[in-house]
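User: Please predict the structure of the protein below. I'd like the answer in structure-token form so I can feed it into my own downstream comparison script.

Assistant: Understood. Taking the following sequence of 273 residues as input:
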Amino acid sequence: MHAPGKIIDPQLLMLAYRSGIFPMADSRDDPEVFWVEPRLRAILPLDGFRCSRSLARTLRRGRFTVTCNAAFTAVMEACAAPRRESEETWISERIASSYTALHYEGFAHSIECWQDEDGGGDGSRRRLVGGLYGVGFDRVFCGESMFSVVPDASKVALAWLVAALREAGAELLDCQFMTEHLASLGAIEISQARYLTLLKRAQEPRPRDQSGWAGAAGAAAGAGAGAGEGLAEGAGTGAPLALPAGFAALLAKAAGSSSSPGNFIAQSFTQTS
């Protein structure tokens, strides 16, 4: 459970994201936050995700069960856990509580990777082994953090996120800061000025038949999993990004193709690479 305390006002937090700014903290127990506007910004073009042969093979084998918004708090806690004993986290208790509040309002989402513990394959005993979370609005998703306790789990979570964002009609996947890991998956670095241009464009109202939301993701809105499902009535309205609906549409398309979801996703990346 998160320690009680004053969360960041959700309206202020969303205004910051819509303006290209996000909060961080110095440590887990730091009650204060500072606002960050990087001079250089990492984004992952949704048509530029690099799915290596090994990752495609992992997706096809279905090593993980992947869900959306099934364990948001658990994903945040795992992301906040120090990777090394001497390392501090920027995800403070106040930040965690603030994003949990956004999750319940439909603006923050998680992707989870699960692995069977007993090897039975029935999902009766499964363990959270990877995932990511972020903030979504209009046609934008701002990735905050990811984690992995077994090889490839975070990569699989990111692959599913990209595929679901395509279904949801998203245009901009913000990764905040560049890392070697993100670069290997297709992320690029742009100026903050260029980022703000893309951010503004992805928030502009668009006709429903041009936004991507009116496609399969829109049809699956009622089936979206997790908080905020069905809330996004259209793009450019200040509404949450329809990521859960995009995720549901992805599963529906895979089922319609008589293919496993992982194989369907791997094929989609092969066709666009």
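That's the full token string. The first strand starts at residue 22 and ends at 24.
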